[in-house]
């Protein structure tokens, strides 16, 4: 059952820590929940939010100036599948790296809330730096160098990207527009794209039509693409054809 206000998390968390011997007070010097335990020197501090966000994380880091026992507490809302605040493994790892504790509160209509401590402040965790996968890194660099220019806008979603593969396909389409029905070797010579035959045979974008054995023509979709990407074609430097001719086949995975 989703909470309407973060204050709804306070009562179950207070009961949880009181059962473990803490004396709990709320809103002490701007801290949502503060607890004192007879066996601990430092106070317990818990900051509450409906969902995990940057504001909560920064708040937790600020509270570490007051105590090393700082927890972040959020609702665990089961219906919100796929939401960023449901990636608990990643969020827990982040909190561990920062020395923060993380608690989730799951509320129900007919039974008591369930409190789960995903990690505690100061949990010892060895987190090695992510290992670079050399093959993926090589593909990244290859794609970067094989593009003739910057034809996309960073942060775009749901838009067709101008990849190195699309650039080659556009050059092939341009050659067919200018030359009419052509053989792959003729397209390769005219476009400067060494992988022209493969691009024609794959026909990934539906721009090419095999009208006879070893003969290709441009489809209406190809004509439309040449109009759509006219600015890209005009912006391609003349020297790009030489690079395209020497390049390996690129998968159109970025489209």
Notes on the structure:
With 255 residues, the protein is α/β, with parallel strands linked by helices. The chain folds into two domains: 6-119, 3-Layer(aba) Sandwich (Trna Endonuclease, Chain: A, domain 1); 145-246, Orthogonal Bundle (Arc Repressor Mutant, subunit A), CATH 1.10.10. Helix content is 38%, strand content 18%. It has ten helices and eight strands. It has helices at residues 10-18, 54-63, 88-98, 134-146, 164-179, 184-191, 196-202, 220-228, 230-235, 240-246, and strands spanning 23-28, 31-36, 44-49, 69-75, 101-106, 114-119, 208-212, 215-218. The strands form two sheets. It has a six-stranded mixed β-sheet, with helices on both faces. A two-stranded antiparallel sheet has the order 7-8. Strand 2 and strand 3 (44-49) form a beta hairpin. Helix 5 (164-179) packs across helix 6 and helix 5 (164-179) packs across helix 8 (220-228). It is elongated and about 85 Å long. This is Restriction endonuclease. It comes from Paenibacillus woosongensis.
List the helices and strands and how they pair.
Elements (H helix, E strand, L loop, with lengths): L9 H9 L4 E6 L2 E6 L7 E6 L4 H10 L5 E7 L12 H11 L2 E6 L7 E6 L14 H13 L17 H16 L4 H8 L4 H7 L5 E5 L2 E4 L1 H9 L1 H6 L4 H7 L9
Parallel strand pairs: 3-4, 4-5
Antiparallel strand pairs: 1-2, 2-3, 5-6, 7-8
Helix pairs in contact: 5-6, 5-8
Organism: Paenibacillus woosongensis
Pfam families: DUF2161
Protein name: Restriction endonuclease
